UniProtKB/TrEMBL annotation:
It comes from Cytobacillus horneckiae. Its main location: membrane. Gene3D superfamilies: P-loop containing nucleotide triphosphate hydrolases. Signal peptide: none annotated. InterPro entries: AAA+_ATPase (IPR003593), ABC_carbohydrate_import_ATPase (IPR050107), ABC_transporter-like_ATP-bd (IPR003439), ABC_transporter-like_CS (IPR017871), P-loop_NTPase (IPR027417). Transmembrane segments: none annotated. GO terms for biological process: monosaccharide transmembrane transport. Residues 7-244, 251-498 form the ABC transporter domain. It is found in: Cell inner membrane; Cell membrane. This is Sugar ABC transporter ATP-binding protein. One of its GO terms (molecular function) is ATP binding.
Length: 500
């Protein structure tokens, strides 16, 4: 590492209205290092990088870039000076093609005002994606891709530019193991080429594997910076939450009863085939598989958000005819989706309004809550899930990513479902809050509810599931008991190795 940092941020302060979000943050970054930025949801990580890249202005503090005091006036300005950011919120425009998204704002033109060089852009896009090990049609509308694939476009876009400082705000949240491995290879290569990388993630394993140093923020202040090889999980977690956290996964203590929910021969041509499984009362069924295996599609079909060509669904002894989500909700099924922006939340409404979305209430068999009850409920949820918000009246769109996810969770708990389908329930959620969510899953199953949990995080699948179903290319390739399951067996089934 050379002696002068490429980026140095000193005593950065930032407030939104009267809320002090950053209260004196110091951060430095060297060329050729991967530097992790960690901290609980709402600690200020995204805000800090938004200040660095000219999206927000700090109220106080200094930024040095290549030794000169600098303040980028806009993200474009930062980009021109060699910075690339992959933001936590995807910036993909669904109706544009993959290639158009790649070159958004920097389209190749034959003359300054002339025709776009579509062919060349398509070709170059293919090359960049190949570098990430992805074979994707550049002319496909981006909206038809999965969240994970869209994320890969963003990553390709960032590394395609002549980047000196690459900022990645939770890049792997939507990716599965194979894509993550490719991404890590590319990051390693960039580091060797001398690129400086800021890496934000809640995944401890990744941080310890990939990063040279770790800086921890807590409540808008920098707590400290450690060399990764001189620290450990416990120390970092303690710096983040300010206390010992104990075990990552709470013990499963629910009594598991008889079959409560079952799916028989569920099919959708070309997507999934003859899916059959059941979930017992009080049980958590984990669903593993690679990205694109069809896990989300199966869950959407159960919930009525997607058509199915055949199959029967039984809950609590009753065969259900689900054609639309409101049929599922009425029957007692809750669904926490993978994509909180699209389906989970109304961003312009407050935390309280989202937690008590009235149409959800009327759709379910719950009676509508009185105003007071609604206020109490949102207060309870904010406390229970430790949602970091200035009040229950804050708009959801100004919450940090992980806190938005907690609101989605709380919202569905409010309708008291018999079966809760969770699709990546802890994506982007910090270690402490993850544990809160696991505890709530435990509590819900103790009350006799059943849970299906789709997750790409194997530690979570292994830590929380009573049984594990593995999906490969739209088929069930294994159903494992907790006692027999391990990472190797799941990966083998997820890549099609085991036949049932
Ligand atoms: N535009 C805004 N208006 C008001 N408050 C905001 C705004 N942007 C961020 N905040 C608040 O600033 C705090 C820090 O948010 P930030 O997004 O930086 O957190 P984070 O560390 O990135 O969290 P996460 O891990 O959940 O992504 C949060 O409490 C958030 O509610
Ligand atoms: Mg963030």
């Amino acid at each position: 590492m050379q002696t002068n940092p490429i980026v140095e941020m000193k005593q950065i302060h930032k407030s939104f209205y009267s809320v002090n979000v950053l209260r004196g943050v110091d951060f430095d970054l060297f060329s050729g290092e991967i530097h992790a930025l960690m901290g609980e949801n709402g600690a200020g990580k995204s805000t800090l990088v938004k200040i660095l890249t000219g999206i927000h202005k700090s109220n106080q503090g200094e930024i040095f870039y290549k030794g000169n005091q600098t303040e980028f006036s806009s993200p474009k300005d930062a980009e021109k000076n060699g910075m690339a950011v992959i933001h936590q919120e995807l910036n993909i425009i669904p109706y544009l093609t993959v290639a158009e998204n790649m070159f958004l704002g920097k389209e190749l033109k034959a003359t300054p005002f002339g025709i776009l060089k579509t062919k060349e852009m398509n070709q170059r896009t293919k090359e960049y994606l190949n570098r990430l090990g992805i074979d994707m049609d550049p002319q496909k509308p981006a909206g038809e891709l999965s969240v994970g694939q869209q994320q890969m476009i963003e990553i390709a876009r960032a590394i395609a530019a002549n980047t000196e400082v690459l900022i990645m705000d939770e890049p792997t949240a939507a990716l599965t193991d194979r894509e993550i491995e490719t991404l890590f290879k590319v990051m390693d290569q960039l580091r060797q080429e001398g690129v400086a990388i800021i890496y934000i993630s809640h995944r401890m394993e990744e941080i310890f594997r990939m990063c040279n140093r770790i800086t921890v923020l807590r409540d808008g202040q920098s707590i400290g910076t450690k060399n990764t090889n001189e620290t450990n999980f416990e120390e970092i977690v303690k710096m983040m939450v300010g206390r010992e956290l104990g075990e990552r996964f709470p013990d499963r203590t629910a009594d598991i009863g008889d079959t409560y929910f079952s799916v028989e021969n569920l099919s959708l041509e070309g997507v999934f085939n003859n899916i059959s499984f059941d979930v017992k009362k009080g049980e958590i069924l984990g669903v593993a598989g690679l990205m694109g295996a069809g896990r989300t599609e199966i869950m959407e079909a159960i919930f009525g958000a997607r058509k199915k060509s055949s199959g029967t669904i039984v809950l609590d002894g009753k065969e259900l005819s689900i054609k639309k989500p409101h049929h599922a909700i009425k029957a007692g099924i809750g669904f926490i989706t993978e994509d909180r922006k699209d389906e989970g939340l109304v961003l312009g409404l407050t935390v309280r309004e989202n937690l008590s979305i009235p149409n959800l209430k009327t759709l379910s068999n719950q009676t509508i809550m009185s105003d007071n009850k609604e206020k109490q409920f949102s207060k309870d949820m904010i406390e229970k899930l430790r949602i970091k918000t200035s009040s229950s009246e804050q708009e959801v769109k100004s919450l940090s990513g992980g806190n938005q996810q907690k609101v989605v969770f709380g919202k569905w708990l409010g309708i008291n479902p018999k079966l809760l389908i969770l699709d990546e329930p802890t994506r982007g959620v910090d270690v402490g809050a993850k544990k809160e969510i696991y505890s709530i899953m435990n509590e819900e199953t103790k009350k006799g509810k059943s849970i299906i949990m789709v997750s790409s995080e194997l530690p979570e699948i292994l830590g929380m599931s009573d049984r594990i179903m593995v999906i490969h290319e739209g088929k069930v390739t294994a159903i494992l008991d907790k006692a027999d399951a391990n990472q190797e067996k799941i990966m083998e089934a997820a890549t099609g190795g085991i036949n049932r």
